[in-house]
Amino acid sequence: MRIRRFLATVLFGALALRASTSAQTPTCDGPGFVAPDAKTTDQFFTGFPSYWNIVVLYLLLFGTSPAVNAVVLLVLSGLVFVRIGYVYPSRTPTLRPLTLVLGTAWGVMIGAIIVLWPSPPRWLAIASLGFPVYYFVLSLVLHFRRGPSRVAGPESPAYR
Prior knowledge:
By secondary structure, the protein is mainly α.
C-alpha cells in the first residue's frame, strides 16, 4: 500500500512540477533529445541528461519548498543547453566498473527508500546522494580532460 501511495505521489508530483514549468519543459527536453551532438563518439551525452524523475524523487524526499523546487528545475533546465559531456554509465570506459557498482548500490538504496516511503531514514536519503554527486563530478572531470566534443551521427556506434 505504501508503495502505491509513493508511486502515486511521485506521478502526481511530477505532473504538477511539469505543469508548473510547462513553459520550460517542452523547450528543454526537446533540444536535449534531438540535438545533433546529444551523443558523442566517445560515449558521452551532452547537455544535462533527462533525469527529471530522479530530481522529483529527491525534491519530494527532502521536502523542499516550491521556491527551491523552481530554482532547481530552472537551473537543470538551463544545463540541458550547456554542452557538458555527461557519463553514459554502461558505455563510458573510464571507471566503468566502479560506476556500475556505485550505480547498482544507489539503485538498491533508492529501492529501499521507495519501500520505506514516506519515512525513509534520513541517513539513507543522504547516503543515496553519493552516486549522483559521483556521477556529476566524474562527468565534469572527464569533460574537461577529453577536449573538444566528438559529435556522433546516426551511423556511429554511439547510437547503437
